[in-house]
Design goal:
Number of helices: 6
Distance between the termini: 51 Å
Order of helices and strands: EHEHEHEHEHH
């Protein structure tokens, strides 16, 4: 089984956040890999990874980074694949805002799709939606997932209807 999605993080301290992306891809039965690469400590490895990801069968790269958060942009500069950045609220960060601003402020020609701070699950959902454009099996899985979201709200409203208050009208 070859990976379709690559989850890259600046260090293993990001794994508690990025585990949500891995869990979602696993539930969707999408093969993925997880690696730690640092734009600052291993720049040559990052460039090599980015240049060779497509030839290895990777379709989408999810890159997480905290603080200065250069990893998603450095990867995007060296690959033709879509890159999704996950800003991490790191221990030394400014509540994650430094990370999100570093990722979203890419120069023209080097786009990085960016999800919310610590929003790893959304990065995996977006990766699946990107791949679904050319893969009906993944598209069907995303449709079922989205339907499950709607049914959760329907169930929530049924549960809320059972709660009684003197002045509650529904």
């Amino acid at each position: 089984m070859k990976p379709l999605v690559s989850i890259i993080m600046g260090s293993t301290s990001d794994m508690p956040v990025m585990e949500e992306a891995a869990k979602f891809l696993n539930e969707m039965q999408i093969p993925f890999e997880i690696n730690a690469l640092s734009a600052h400590r291993t720049p040559d490895l990052v460039a090599d990874f980015a240049k060779n990801a497509s030839s290895r069968g990777i379709k989408v790269i999810i890159a997480a980074a905290g603080g200065a958060a250069h990893l998603p942009g450095v990867i995007a500069a060296s690959t033709e694949l879509p890159v999704i950045g996950v800003p991490i609220k790191a221990s030394m960060s400014m509540d994650g805002w430094d990370s999100i601003l570093s990722i979203i402020q890419m120069p023209p020609g080097i786009p990085v799709a960016t999800v919310g701070i610590n929003a790893a699950k959304n990065s995996a959902i977006l990766a699946c939606q990107i791949m679904a454009v050319g893969d009906n099996e993944i598209k069907d899985k995303i449709i079922k997932f989205k339907q499950s979201l709607a049914s959760k709200i329907t169930k929530a409203n049924e549960d809320l209807a059972k709660i009684k208050f003197e002045y509650k009208t529904n």
